[in-house]
């Protein structure tokens, strides 16, 4: 029995201990992630709906029909396009606003950086429903502050939430305003990790403010920027609350996002099977997009 | 826009789902009634029976005031009222059903009745109604009563009613025949208002994402909305097309603005400012307008029933048979006590008190007359309108179908689609929504045919044995 070398025995008991330590986390992941995920996948292959709530015998296994229906539904493509527009418009705007804000807060020019950080972060933690009331007034075509301001410079009144084209812009602006504070805080931390010595060396070489920004700050912030970009992308893909409280997805579905469509199918109309299928499409989309972002970054740093 | 409550048309589903259960429920209810009667006689010594009641919104609040009198009349029964916000109620009811946590009795928007019947969540009330001295179905507005009837079985008692009609500014509609007696006359009145009011005034407010307005017009034109026992959509049907043409034409000609609910930031302010001269809305705005319009404007608004499509047709034209119903749940712990509570709330004197407390229009005609509602011109218009209230199709999918109808109207009003294309799209989408219903009805019919075949086979066999 004692033939087992002590080292191997120690290794085995270490492995056992490791599994022991991991067990709670694995159990939690299994219980709250893997099982529901498998359940949702199964659900997406059925036509589970309000009738099936009454009697499970009323649910049918329909294979890929939910997915095929989705692809055949023009509304799905409208919603997909809306979501992509939100992402294409919203992510860069959020990044720029966050970075700009971070540079401002971080710069030695600003007094009371703590105050600014709080001010910029406030929208992130404010209840959207309350904020929406204010924004609806800002956007009001006749009494709104924004149109009043535009009127002063001679731009005619814009029906921000009523015109399908503008509604998208209006919702994106609100979403950017609401999320950029989060990225800003991360960027500020990133800025603090850039070694001061690099700036000192650059100053000695006669670099200006702009050159320092371009050649030191931005390259040093790359990992932070990627992190923020992934975070914001995932968030914007799942945009829900903004259109839900501001426009209910209207006018003419111009601001319905994938998540909003999923919510309506699932919790308004109880088409759980269809809603689950939408959830998996969204999941695949986010997976591909973040994968692309990471690959892009690797390719960028590999050069 | 506050609660939106309505009704549906004939749904075979309820009956097909549970003929056996209906019988069982009726027997249970009848048995429990006897038990309760015995309990009442028994008096103090018995354990207290609790009726858990869910009230929605403001009604859930004021109904508490009716509880003490009920408990005095029925010692041994206690009523626990839980108030649920109207916006969360539908979801909460479904969740409670799934979790087997439904209360004993509840208030429901009457359009939800078919859905909960399809789920098998409610207990039938026919026997209890037939045995009750306090409830006379003929005293109720027929259209509203009908919203609670599926396949000849009554599932709910109308509590208060709600329909929609014209609210208008008396100073802005002057200068022609009023109130209108046909769509054509109505339109001419709108054109007059528009011409007199200038660019800042629209003749009528029709929130473009609300379904009641186009659906009311369709019901007036006699459109069936669905065909074949609610199996198929019927929106390319000429009567529906006519109603949609009239509705969308109001936008095309600038008589109504394509506003949605979220853009109308303050309805009352805009009504007072004269941004529009009329709107189609419900009784809750009687109280709101009294509260929110300044005193010097109070004589400037009134209500009128809706016109029918043609001058010769019955006046007023149809409108929605909305309102709230009282129901007993199948899983009620004490259905008999729950029924006593419903019966008590339906008594004319309690209906009158409820009217006083909440301002909701009572479901029984006798209360209207006793309460003076029939004389007040603003509520008298509602009385006339309620006599012409008709249910919308009683299928569980109705709310979703109605939302889709509003979308079709919006597509045309905003010029995104032609009327014919929008109606074809509407038909296709609604047909798809009803696919599951068709499958269930077919399966049910097959099962019934099988049972009938078995029965006749069995009968033949026993015939043979006898011989």
SSE string of chain A, helices as H and strands as E: HHHHHHHHHHHHHH
Going across the major beta sheet of chain B, what is the strand order?
2-1-3-14-6-15
How much strand content do the residues of chain A show?
A: under 5%
Number of domains in the coordinates of chain A? 2
Query: Which oligomeric state applies?
Result: heterodimer
Could you write a compact summary of the structure shown?
Chain A is mainly α and 303 residues long.
Can you characterise this structure?
The complex is a heterodimer of chains A (303) and B (467). With 303 residues, chain A is mainly α. Chain A has 2 domains: 40 residues; 228 residues, MetI-like fold (Orthogonal Bundle). Chain A has 14 helices and no strands. In chain A, helix 4 runs parallel beside helix 8, helix 4 packs antiparallel against helix 11 and helix 5 crosses helix 8. Chain A is flat and about 75 Å long. Chain A starts with 5 loop residues before the first helix and ends with a helix. The model of chain A has no long low-confidence stretch (mean pLDDT 88). Chain B is α/β, with parallel strands linked by helices and 467 residues long. Chain B has 2 domains: 216 residues, D-Maltodextrin-Binding Protein, domain 2; 191 residues, 3-Layer(aba) Sandwich (D-Maltodextrin-Binding Protein, domain 2). Chain B has a 6-stranded mixed β-sheet. In chain B, strands 8-11-7-12 form a 4-stranded mixed β-sheet. In chain B, strand 9 and strand 10 form a beta hairpin. In chain B, helix 10 crosses helix 11 and helix 18 runs antiparallel to helix 19. The longest helix of chain B is centred in the last third of the chain and has 32 residues. Chain B starts with 12 loop residues before the first helix and ends with a helix. The N terminus of chain B is likely disordered. Chains A and B meet through helix 2 of A and helix 5, helix 6, helix 18 and helix 20 of B.
């Amino acid at each position: 029995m004692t033939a087992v070398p002590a080292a191997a025995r120690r290794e085995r008991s270490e492995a056992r201990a490791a599994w022991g330590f991991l067990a709670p986390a694995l159990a939690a992941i299994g219980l709250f992630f893997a099982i529901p995920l498998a359940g949702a996948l199964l659900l997406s292959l059925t036509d589970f709906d309000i009738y099936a709530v009454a009697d499970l015998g009323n649910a049918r296994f329909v294979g890929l029909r939910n997915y095929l229906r989705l692809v055949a539904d023009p509304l799905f493509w409208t919603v997909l396009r809306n979501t992509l527009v939100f992402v294409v418009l919203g992510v860069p705007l959020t990044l720029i606003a966050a970075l700009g804000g971070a540079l401002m807060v971080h710069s030695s020019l600003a007094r009371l950086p703590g105050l600014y950080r709080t001010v910029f972060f406030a929208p992130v933690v404010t209840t959207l429903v309350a904020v929406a009331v204010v924004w609806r007034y800002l956007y009001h075509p006749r009494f709104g502050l924004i149109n009043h301001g535009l009127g002063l410079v001679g731009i005619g009144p814009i029906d921000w939430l009523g015109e399908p084209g503008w509604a998208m812009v209006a919702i994106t602006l609100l979403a950017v305003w609401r999320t950029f504070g989060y990225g800003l805080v991360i960027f500020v931390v990133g800025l603090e990790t850039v070694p001061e010595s690099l700036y000192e060396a650059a100053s000695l070489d006669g670099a200006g403010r702009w050159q320092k920004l371009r050649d030191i700050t931005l390259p040093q912030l790359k990992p932070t920027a990627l992190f923020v970009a992934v975070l914001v992308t995932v968030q914007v893909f799942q945009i829900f609350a903004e259109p839900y409280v501001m426009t209910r997805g209207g006018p003419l579905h111009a601001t319905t996002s994938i998540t909003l469509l999923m919510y309506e199918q699932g919790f308004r109309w109880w088409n759980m099977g269809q809603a689950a299928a939408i959830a998996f499409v969204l999941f695949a989309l986010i997976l591909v997009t973040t994968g692309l972002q990471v690959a892009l970054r690797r390719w960028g740093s590999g050069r | 826009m506050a609660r939106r409550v309505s009704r549906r048309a004939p749904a075979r589903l309820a009956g097909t789902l549970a003929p056996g259960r209906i019988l069982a429920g009726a027997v249970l209810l009848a048995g429990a009634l006897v038990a309760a009667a015995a309990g009442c006689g028994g008096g103090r010594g018995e354990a207290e029976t609790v009726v858990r009641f869910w009230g929605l919104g403001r009604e859930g609040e004021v109904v508490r005031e009716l509880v003490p009198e009920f408990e005095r009349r029925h010692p041994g029964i206690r009523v626990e009222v839980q108030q649920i916000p109207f916006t969360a109620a539908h979801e909460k009811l479904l969740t409670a059903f799934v979790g087997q946590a439904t209360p004993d009795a509840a208030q429901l928007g009457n359009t939800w009745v078919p859905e909960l019947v399809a789920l098998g969540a409610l207990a039938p009330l026919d026997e209890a109604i037939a045995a009750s001295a306090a409830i006379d179905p003929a005293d109720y507005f027929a259209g509203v009563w009908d919203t609670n009837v599926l396949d000849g079985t009554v599932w709910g008692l109308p509590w208060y009613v709600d329909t929609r009609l014209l609210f208008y500014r008396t100073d802005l509609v002057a200068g022609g025949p009023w109130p209108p007696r046909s769509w054509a006359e109505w339109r001419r009145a709108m054109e007059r208002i528009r011409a007199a009011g200038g660019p800042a005034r629209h003749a009528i407010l029709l929130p473009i994402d609300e379904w009641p307005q186009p659906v009311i017009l369709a019901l007036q034109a006699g459109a069936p909305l669905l065909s074949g026992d609610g199996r198929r959509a019927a929106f390319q049907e000429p009567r529906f097309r006519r109603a949609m043409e009239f509705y969308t034409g109001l936008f095309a000609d600038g008589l109504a603005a394509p506003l949605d609910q979220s853009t109308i930031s303050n309805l009352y302010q805009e009504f007072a400012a004269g941004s529009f001269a009329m709107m189609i809305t419900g009784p809750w705005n009687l109280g709101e307008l009294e509260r929110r319009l300044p005193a010097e404007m109070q004589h400037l608004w009134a209500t009128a029933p809706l016109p029918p499509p043609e001058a010769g047709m019955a006046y007023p034209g149809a409108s929605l048979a909305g309102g709230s119903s009282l129901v007993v749940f199948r899983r009620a712990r004490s259905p008999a006590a729950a029924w006593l509570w419903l019966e008590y709330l339906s008594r004319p004197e309690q209906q009158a008190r409820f009217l006083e407390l909440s301002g909701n229009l009572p479901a029984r005609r006798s209360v209207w007359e006793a309460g003076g509602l029939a004389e007040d011109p603003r509520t008298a218009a509602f009385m006339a309108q309620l006599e012409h209230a008709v249910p919308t199709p009683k299928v569980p999918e109705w709310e979703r179908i109605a939302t889709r109808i509003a979308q079709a109207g919006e597509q045309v009003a905003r010029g995104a689609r032609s009327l014919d294309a929008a109606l074809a799209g509407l038909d296709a989408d609604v047909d798809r929504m009803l696919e599951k219903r068709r499958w269930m009805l077919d399966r049910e019919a097959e099962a019934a045919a099988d049972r009938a075949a078995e029965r006749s086979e069995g009968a033949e066999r026993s015939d043979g044995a006898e011989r």
